[in-house]
């Protein structure tokens, strides 16, 4: 995830169990693009013990091929193409989710990258630009190009992040695709993760926001699948997670500035605070120093109260996940 899945975040995730593999923030490729050092570090300094895929976003075929070739010199698990980013600045340039409006161009890019990547080449897509009705045609394209994995965020670009997931579309892709399909969207706890797997038959899950809120989600899902007991997360666990995240990100920041760092932490805290008292989020949004940041965290989290497994349905950041439980 952009501005989230950097080296520090990956390391913290790993300390709580972590995913089977990571995907970098996207390298935003254009004609004169040179590889961003910060993103490259999550490949060259990845000591999580888990493989990392390098994700590309862009629409300039020669540039995409050039950057893919350069990245192949580093220890990556494979190259992933982003066809899902809904940010207007990206879509306007016909990159990310914007490419889904241009199926022919999308196919040319996939064909060119497949042709020039000897190792694993994967695609992360949404279901369409305007609507999931576009997915049948897109699926035909994906089927033609020998992908190693297709990851599907089960929404159109227009749906952004606020709707339930079209599980029927992912299930259809699982039936039609010759490669493994990974389901993505709205997994916030064990029940929604198992629900998404059951509804789609997908070979795996990709988890984004749910992992920022609760990094235990990966080990909890593994335990559930292995019929083992599932850890109950306490507020004091969250405090430990936040402290680790604060320190790890600080360690990886070359020009550390306390105020900037506290503001950066708020981005993560907005996810973590969902389901904790409203007053916690309210206060954390206003802190400006490390002292007040930690004081506020300790005031609300330094106790052994259990954290609800799911955030409230229709919280600011998470909604539509209840459909995965039925
Ligand atoms: C802050 C943020 C940044 C994201 N950046 C990326 C990205 O760089 N590449 C990508 O494929 N998806 C990105 N996504 C989308 C997520 O990977 C995922 O598809 C989406 O959030 C739905 O899954 P979730 O409900 O598990 O979060 C981003 C999402 C968020 C919230």
Give structural notes.
It is a single chain. The chain is of the alpha/beta class. The chain is built from 14 helices and 7 strands. It has helices spanning 7-15, 37-44, 61-71, 88-91, 103-116, 135-143, 167-176, 190-200, 209-213, 217-225, 235-252, 258-272, 278-284, 290-301, and strands spanning 22-28, 52-57, 78-83, 120-125, 149-153, 181-184, 204-206. A 7-stranded parallel sheet has the order 1-2-3-4-5-6-7. Helix 7 links the parallel strand 5 (149-153) and strand 6. The longest helix is centred in the last third of the chain and has 18 residues, at 235-252. Bound molecules: flavin mononucleotide (FMN). Flavin mononucleotide binds at residues 1-2, 4, 25-26, 55, 82, 84, 124, 153, 161, 184-187, 207-210.
Average of per-residue pLDDT values: 97
Full CATH superfamily name of the largest domain: Aldolase class I
Low-confidence stretches: none
Shape, principal axes of CA atoms: globular
- The N- and C-terminal alpha carbons lie at a distance of 28 Å
- Structural domains: how many: 2
Query: What is the CATH-assigned architecture of the largest domain?
Result: Alpha-Beta Barrel
Identify the bound ligands.
Answer: flavin mononucleotide
Number of helices: 14
Q: Give helix % range.
A: 40-55%
What is the structural class?
alpha/beta
What strand line-up does the widest sheet have? Answer: 1-2-3-4-5-6-7
What name does the CATH topology of the largest domain carry?
A: TIM Barrel
Largest sheet, in brief, is:
7 strands, parallel
The number of E-state strands comes to: 7
- Strand content bin: 5-15%
């Amino acid at each position: 995830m952009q501005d989230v899945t950097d080296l520090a975040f990956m390391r913290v995730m790993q300390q709580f169990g972590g995913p089977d593999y990571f995907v970098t923030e996207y390298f935003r490729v254009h004609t004169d693009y040179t590889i961003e050092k910060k993103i490259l570090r999550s490949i060259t300094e990845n000591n999580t013990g888990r493989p990392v895929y390098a994700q590309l976003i862009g629409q300039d075929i020669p540039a995409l091929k050039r950057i893919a070739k350069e990245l192949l010199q580093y220890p990556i698990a494979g190259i992933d193409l982003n066809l899902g980013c809904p940010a207007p600045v990206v879509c306007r340039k016909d990159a990310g989710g914007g490419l889904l409006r241009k199926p022919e161009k999308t196919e040319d890019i996939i064909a060119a990258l497949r042709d020039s990547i000897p190792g694993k080449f994967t695609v992360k897509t949404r279901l369409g630009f305007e609507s999931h009705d576009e997915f049948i045609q897109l699926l035909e394209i994906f089927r033609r190009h020998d992908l190693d994995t297709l990851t599907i965020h089960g929404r159109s670009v227009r749906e952004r992040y606020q709707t339930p997931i079209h599980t029927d579309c992912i299930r259809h892709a699982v039936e039609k695709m010759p490669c493994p399909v990974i389901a993505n969207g709205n997994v916030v706890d064990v029940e929604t993760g198992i629900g998404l797997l059951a509804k789609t038959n997908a070979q795996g899950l990709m988890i984004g926001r749910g992992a920022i809120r609760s990094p235990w989600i990966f080990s909890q899902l593994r335990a559930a699948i292995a019929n083992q007991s599932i850890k109950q997360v306490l507020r004091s666990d969250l405090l430990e997670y936040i402290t680790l995240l604060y320190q790890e990100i600080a360690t990886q920041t070359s020009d550390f500035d306390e105020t900037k760092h506290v503001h950066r932490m708020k981005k993560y805290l907005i996810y973590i605070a969902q389901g904790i008292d409203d007053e916690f989020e309210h206060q954390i949004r206003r802190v400006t120093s490390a002292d007040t940041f930690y004081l506020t965290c300790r005031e609300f989290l330094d106790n052994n109260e259990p954290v609800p497994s799911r955030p409230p349905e229709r919280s600011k950041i998470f909604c539509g996940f209840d459909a995965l439980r039925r």
